[in-house]
Design brief:
- By secondary structure, the chain is of the alpha/beta class.
- The chain has a single domain, classed as Oxidized Rhodanese, domain 1.
- The chain contains 6 helices and 5 strands, in the order H-E-H-E-H-E-H-E-H-E-H.
- The longest helix is centred in the N-terminal third of the chain and has 24 residues.
- About 8% of the residues have low confidence.
Length: 132
């Protein structure tokens, strides 16, 4: 009985350690509201806006000046490799699922200032901001 309990304790200990390690390995992705992103776009120079949706989704509109990197393409991360890691990036998609993934990849690649638009382009539109 003691041997069985030791195995359970050992298993639980390993599980907890692995969970803690995986939680630490994930970079923290800062999210911003559409109003804060718009304010930064209007007042700061060098801000880069990345739209990570598919080209077919962009046809219905995009945030003015946004660059497109479709993260569903094979080897999309190669496009991140040529970007300046010291600039400030605001990343968005339709809601914020894909943009969270893209921002996470960017942080893992060493980008310093990456922000995810909470609610994606839907939040941008709900604030009444224009699309191009």
């Amino acid at each position: 009985m003691i041997k069985c309990n030791l195995k359970r304790v050992g298993f639980l200990l390993i599980t907890v350690v692995l969970y803690c390690y995986s939680a630490k390995a994930q970079p923290v992705i800062e999210t911003v509201k559409a109003t804060d992103m718009k304010k930064a776009m209007d007042s700061e120079s060098g801000v880069v806006v990345l739209d990570v949706r598919r080209p077919t989704e962009i046809v219905v509109g995009r945030i003015p000046g946004a660059e497109n990197i479709d993260i569903r393409q094979d080897e999309f991360w190669l496009k991140f490799k040529v970007l300046n890691k010291d600039k400030k990036y605001y990343v968005y998609c339709n809601n914020d699922g894909r943009s969270t993934s893209a921002a996470r990849v960017m942080k893992q690649m060493g980008f310093k200032n990456v922000y995810n638009l909470r609610g994606g382009i839907a939040a941008w539109k709900s604030e009444g901001y224009l699309l191009e």
